[in-house]
Write a structure and sequence with these properties.
The protein has 384 residues and is an alpha/beta fold. The chain has helices at 65-70, 80-93, 115-128, 150-158, 180-191, 195-207, 212-225, 238-247, 258-266, 275-280, 290-295, 310-320, 326-332, 335-340; strands spanning 6-15, 18-28, 31-37, 45-48, 53-56, 58-63, 96-105, 135-143, 164-168, 230-233, 251-253, 270-274, 301-303, 358-364, 367-375, 378-382. The protein is built from 14 helices and 16 strands. Strands 1, 2, 3, 4, 5, 14, 15 and 16 form an eight-stranded mixed sheet that branches.
């Protein structure tokens, strides 16, 4: 276990604007105090990187893996505290140093996404926060057709238990699901819902359409009152992006086509793409390829969506394929998400004065491996 004061030497350091080879950095009291080419003369513990990469730890703004940790099979549940601690270890091993656990408020759709259950999980995350290895925050996902979620969200927002809130609309006919068949195929296959159950969900969504605007306006006002950053999910048109811009929503998660992506870029809205999409090379929902979008100059943030291990591999695939240089690919998973949610003064890049949230990566045979993960100067994962 590392002390909070140490030097990492002979490293290939990924900086925001480039790569510093054969360099060293010094950590004091959990903070990066010096970055130098060559050696740093200092006493205390030293880590020989042997030329390996030192990256800023990943900041994952959208990860709903906790749902599968709690409910690995339909109607089979594990205790929330056990699921959180086990996932925390996995996140550290994947190089994630700040996690935004994504919990959905969408009553009657999927087991853990009921309002009462989602709120209870969020309260447990906050209760156990200080005991986690990685920095742990909450991303609340609001299904806008569910007015029953609003009292829960109001309490959580006012109690400062939420760090990011996104607006979702999974009603068939727009967004991710252009057709009823695609909605039923996805939820029926992934979440084992019957056709009758899915029809009931769709009917309930359609019945609330008239009141959706007032739901959104109220939650937006709550977020603004508490300075909580906001995101929108599965944006599919220029019109939707213009609404984001007018509303003050600064992150577009998983825009489904180039029309929405171009509009988001034009308005200075952060474009968040899925690392699983980059890793596979395509969208499971047959929407825009994240690799293609990034190669065209679009895309600001990578998140793990449902698979934390994908961020590391997506970053190195983008560099290995020549889509963008490695330091820019790393920024997608570290500095840019930090900027999007207002924590870039503290973390998100390897710069003097910032928290020592770092990962050591070995890259051989086209497969990167996390060897060490350090959070605020404390080693939380190591294989060497």
């Amino acid at each position: 276990m590392l002390d909070r004061d140490f030097v990492i030497e002979d490293a290939t350091i990924i900086l925001p604007s480039g790569i510093a080879e054969r360099s060293s950095l010094k950590i004091e009291d959990g903070t990066i105090s010096k970055i130098r080419e060559g050696d740093i003369n200092s006493g205390g513990m030293r880590i020989k990187a042997k030329g390996r990469y030192i990256l800023p730890g990943f900041i994952d703004l959208h990860c709903d893996a906790i749902e599968k940790e709690i409910e690995p099979r339909p109607n089979s549940y594990f205790p929330v505290n056990i699921a959180l601690f086990e996932l925390d270890k996995k996140l550290a091993s994947c190089g994630v140093t700040t996690i935004f656990h994504a919990l959905s408020f969408a009553e009657g759709e999927i087991g853990v996404r009921s309002n009462n259950t989602a709120a209870a999980i969020i309260k447990e995350i906050n209760r156990l926060n200080a005991k986690m290895c990685v920095k742990t925050k909450v991303h609340a996902r609001f299904e806008i057709t569910d007015d029953g979620a609003i009292p829960y969200l109001e309490d959580l927002i006012k109690d400062e238990r939420i760090s990011l809130l996104s607006f979702m609309d999974h009603t068939p006919g727009q967004g991710q699901f252009k057709e009823v068949a695609s909605f039923k195929n996805y939820f029926g296959t992934v979440y084992k819902k019957s056709d009758a159950e899915l029809t009931k969900i769709i009917e309930r969504k359609l019945a609330t359409k008239e009141s959706v605007k007032s739901h959104i306006d109220y939650v937006v006002a709550l977020c603004k009152s508490m300075n909580i950053p906001m995101a929108s999910h599965d944006d599919d048109s220029e019109e939707k992006i213009l609404w984001l811009n007018e509303t003050g929503i600064r992150i577009s998660e998983f825009p489904v086509n180039m029309e929405a992506i171009r509009a988001a870029r034009d308005k200075g809205i952060y474009i968040c793409l899925g690392a699983p999409n980059v890793l596979r090379g395509n969208s499971h929902a047959k929407n825009i390829s994240a690799r293609d979008a990034i190669s065209l100059g679009y895309g600001d943030i990578l998140c793990s969506d449902y698979s934390p291990m994908t961020i590391l591999h997506a970053v190195f695939i983008l560099a290995r394929l020549g889509v963008i240089p490695l330091h820019r690919a790393v920024n997608l998973a570290s500095l840019n998400p930090a900027k999007a949610v207002g924590i870039s003064q503290q973390t998100g890049s390897i710069e003097e004065g910032k928290d020592a949230d770092l990962i050591m990566v070995d890259f051989q045979d086209d497969v990167p491996k996390v060897l060490k993960t350090i959070v605020s100067g404390r080693e939380v994962f190591s294989t060497c």
